[in-house]
Write a structure and sequence with these properties.
Elements (H helix, E strand, L loop, with lengths): L32 H65 L33 E3 L2 E9 L4 E2 L5 H11 L3 H15 L12 H4 L27 H5 L35 E2 L6 E2 L5 H4 L7 H12 L27 H7 L3 E2 L4 E10 L2 E13 L2 E9 L1
Parallel strand pairs: 3-4, 5-6
Antiparallel strand pairs: 1-2, 2-7, 7-8, 8-9
Helix pairs in contact: 2-3
């Protein structure tokens, strides 16, 4: 039986999908979508690259730091013993220095101070510079503490003169001097212009007066009236002072405030013996002694420096006894007897700086040594700077 329609028409074509004519613009894809997706993908790729670059850079830096730390740590043992070797060399030199019979003094032209003189048979072959030992090289520099005045032995006259040399006003100087003495003395009773714990406990933060000797000179900045500029000296390179501003009378002005021409740290120490070494003290320190003005201080230095006028050279003429001050213009025999107790020609305490260099890496060990005699030179402390 034939079921096909009589007209033979193929009706399946009516159910087939029909393509829209190309000129009718009936595409289902939104315009511009492909370029937007490409742009976003490009941005994501660039961000990934940046993140990976940052991570790689951070990792490389971390590796470099770790490598440097590991290398430094591997030299810790060498640094320690090279530093200690430098301190032992310094002890040997100051001990041998005291054995030289015709030089009963310590002066800037001697071996320990880097000068050409002051050597015996034991010191002739000794060098304090470019000493090669093991994996490194070290240099030793000694500075005697007796070239400054011990703050713990200072009296009102010494303090007043030191503050005057700094440029402190006379009225302010009296208050500071009393406060320094109150800080050092064992009691808690303030002087007329001084300060004790009741004043410091009112500060923020509060603290108590030490009522004992200063262990470190920076403690001065804890004392009433002592400012950092007074302690370190005014840094003139940071101040724009008009050319018309000159002299101490104009030092306190609206442009700069107080100007301290000298620093307390250049005059005082906490580690010297009571007397000042005539052969190593600076002109500034010499002027701290009552009765020694700038003219007399210059005459003392000219006398010890010799014909060339330079300390630390072969023609130096160091003082062999404080009584030789009588030969200095401006000093009378009576003045020598009075002031002789303030001076000495020996140093007992030395600060040692040992700079160690191992393959370009440098560290400095600082030590304090005390020489009681040629057979007894002690190391009081060491630390890395």
């Amino acid at each position: 039986m034939n079921l096909r329609p009589a007209n033979n028409r193929d009706w399946s074509a009516a159910f087939r999908p029909q393509k829209a004519p190309s000129d009718q613009g009936t595409s289902l894809r939104p315009e511009g979508r492909a370029p937007a997706q490409s742009g976003i993908a490009l941005i994501i790729v660039m961000l990934v690259i940046v993140v990976l670059a940052v991570l790689a850079g951070g990792f490389a830096y971390s590796v470099k730091v770790e490598t440097t730390l590991a290398r430094n740590a591997s030299h810790d043992y060498d640094f320690e013993w090279l530093g200690r070797s430098g301190v032992e060399l310094a002890r040997y030199v100051v001990a041998e220095q005291m054995k030289i019979p015709n030089e009963p003094y310590d002066a800037l032209n001697q071996k320990w101070a880097g000068g050409p003189m002051g050597t015996n048979e034991a010191l002739n072959s000794v060098s304090l510079t470019d000493v090669r030992l093991g994996p490194g090289v070290f240099n030793v520099k000694l500075t005697d503490c007796e070239r400054k005045f011990n703050i713990n032995s200072a009296d009102p006259m010494i303090l007043a003169q030191a503050l005057k040399l700094c440029g402190v006003d006379v009225g302010e100087a009296s208050q500071i001097a009393d406060s320094v003495l109150d800080w050092i003395d064992p009691d808690d009773q303030p002087r007329l212009s001084g300060a004790e714990s009741d004043f410091y406990l009112s500060q923020s933060p509060p603290y108590q007066a030490k009522n004992g000797p200063l262990d470190d000179l920076t403690e001065l900045m804890l004392i009433r009236g002592v400012s950092p500029d007074m302690f370190r000296g005014t840094d003139m390179s940071q101040i724009d002072v008009p050319r018309s501003v000159t002299g101490r009378a104009l030092a306190v002005n609206k442009y700069t405030g107080p100007i301290y021409t000298n620093a307390l740290r250049d005059m005082f120490t906490t580690t010297s013996i009571r007397a000042v070494n005539l052969n190593t003290a600076s002109m500034l320190v010499l002027q701290m002694i009552p009765g020694v003005d700038a003219t007399i201080a210059q005459a003392i230095i000219a006398r010890r420096a010799g014909l060339d006028g330079q300390d630390g050279t072969e023609d130096d003429m160091p003082f062999r006894a404080p009584r030789e001050l009588a030969s200095v213009p401006g000093f009378s025999q009576q003045a020598v007897q009075v002031l002789g107790q303030r001076f000495s020609i020996r140093s007992a305490t030395f600060e040692v700086a040992v700079e160690v260099d191992i393959n370009g890496q440098k560290r400095t060990m600082v030590a304090l040594i005390y020489r009681a005699n040629a057979r007894d030179v002690r190391t009081l402390y060491t630390h890395w700077k």
